[in-house]
């Protein structure tokens, strides 16, 4: 059964909730919301205390804004899920923009009634400073972002945000892409990754996981190669060297902070 028509005669939005978690995203969240307004009648923004007017922008664009102090990535997304009215949920981050192709594909998915899969993987393509759209040969991730709430939930992890399903879920992949404007600048990326490595080191402690200290010698060079070659930062020329270096330093710093925590615990006895 197709969605009912709107007063304009155009098809109404599918029975789908969209949620976004945000913190100080006033410069980016407008484009994020504009790209999905036609996909939902239940747009939820969970804000963790922005001071730049993010909440006002989201409300003016029709979002239902809810405050929730930051508990970590997984718990924040689990909280956001519970605020959604529909069983089908699309999650996008505040620095991501759903492409017109993906929007049309999602509409078509619901046009014939209930989608057949329990969750749908969506290609997420990075857009770096100085680029208008993703590089055609750039690296993409494809996590589940569109899913049934009665079959899948975000994991509790404070540093990993992945949907976990019960039973044997049916997972399919959509062809359209989300454009990910992940960094505002190299400096912004360094600040963001520095904060993230603090959370990762703490998460390793909570899980009682120990990484070998010998890796301090290999973490940077191996992860530079991973970013530059495997994740194809090389397609961005000299700028790709800079972004690959940031990625490698982020992985190195995560390990260094983990090692330092163990060193300090040993000193305290």
Automatic annotation (TrEMBL):
Pfam name, any one: Glycos_transf_2
* Signal sequence region: none
Start and end of every Glycosyltransferase 2-like domain?
A: 17-115
- InterPro entries given in the database record: Glyco_trans_2-like (IPR001173), Nucleotide-diphossugar_trans (IPR029044)
| Origin superkingdom | Bacteria
- Listed GO MF terms: transferase activity
Alphabetically list the UniProt keywords.
Transferase
Q: Which family does it belong to?
A: Belongs to the glycosyltransferase 2 family. WaaE/KdtX subfamily.
The protein's name: Glycosyltransferase family 2 protein
Q: Which organism is it from?
A: Labrys okinawensis
């Amino acid at each position: 059964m197709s969605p009912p028509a709107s007063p304009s005669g155009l098809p109404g939005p599918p029975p789908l909730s969209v949620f976004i978690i945000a913190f100080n995203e006033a410069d980016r969240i407008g484009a994020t919301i504009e790209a999905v307004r036609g996909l939902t009648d239940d747009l939820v923004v969970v804000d963790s205390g922005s001071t730049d007017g993010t909440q006002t922008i989201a409300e003016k664009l029709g979002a239902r804004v809810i405050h929730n102090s930051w508990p970590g990535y997984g718990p924040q997304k689990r909280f956001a899920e519970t605020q959604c009215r529909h069983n089908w949920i699309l999650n996008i981050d505040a620095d991501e923009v759903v492409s017109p192709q993906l929007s049309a594909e999602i509409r078509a998915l619901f046009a014939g009634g209930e989608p057949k899969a329990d969750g749908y993987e969506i290609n997420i393509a990075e857009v770096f400073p100085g680029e208008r759209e993703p590089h055609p040969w750039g690296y993409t991730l494809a996590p589940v972002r569109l899913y049934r709430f009665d079959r899948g939930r975000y994991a509790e992890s404070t540093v990993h945000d992945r949907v976990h399903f019960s039973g044997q879920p049916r997972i399919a992949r959509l062809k359209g892409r989300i454009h990910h404007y992940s960094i505002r600048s190299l400096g912004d990326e360094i600040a963001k990754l520095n904060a993230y490595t603090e959370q990762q080191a703490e998460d390793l402690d909570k899980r009682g996981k120990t990484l070998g200290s010998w890796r301090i010698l290999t973490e940077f060079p191996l992860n530079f190669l991973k970013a530059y070659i495997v994740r194809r930062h090389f397609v961005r020329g000299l700028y790709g060297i800079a972004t690959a270096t940031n990625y490698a330093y982020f992985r190195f710093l995560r390990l260094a902070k983990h090692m330092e925590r163990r060193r300090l615990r040993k000193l305290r006895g």
